[in-house]
Amino acid sequence: MSETHQVVTDLDPAQARQLMSDGALVVDVREPHEWAAGRIDGAVHHPLSALDPVLLAAQQRPVLAVCRSGGRSSRAAQVLAAQGGPAVYNLAGGMQAWARAGLPMVADGETPEVA
């Protein structure tokens, strides 16, 4: 029996935003203090150290993994893709690229920005 692994595609912020508007689940794998400081509105928090790939593989929609610069989320995306399920993507450049692109973020205690 041969294993099949999905290919993880890196997306730039504009592509990621389009994927989100098409219904993708955004999974932020950063640590709690990073999450609290600023994140994509609507993202779910699953730190890489506690990532449950089986739970996320049960999703019926594409998954976009996000971290600070794209490294941890790339590892998380590979783990998720190995479980099968929906397509998995990585935000290239992470939240740093998202912020540089001027896209909206929300932090604890804030109301989401509208872009």
UniProtKB/TrEMBL annotation:
Q: What InterPro entries would the database entry show? A: GlpE_sulfurtransferase, Rhodanese-like_dom, Rhodanese-like_dom_sf
Domain Rhodanese per the UniProt entry, residue ranges: 20-107
Q: Which Gene3D superfamilies match?
A: Rhodanese-like domain (3.40.250.10)
Q: Which domain of life is it from?
A: Bacteria
The protein depicted here goes by the name Rhodanese-like domain-containing protein
Natural source organism: Nocardioides acrostichi
Lineage start: Bacteria, Bacillati, Actinomycetota, Actinomycetes, Propionibacteriales
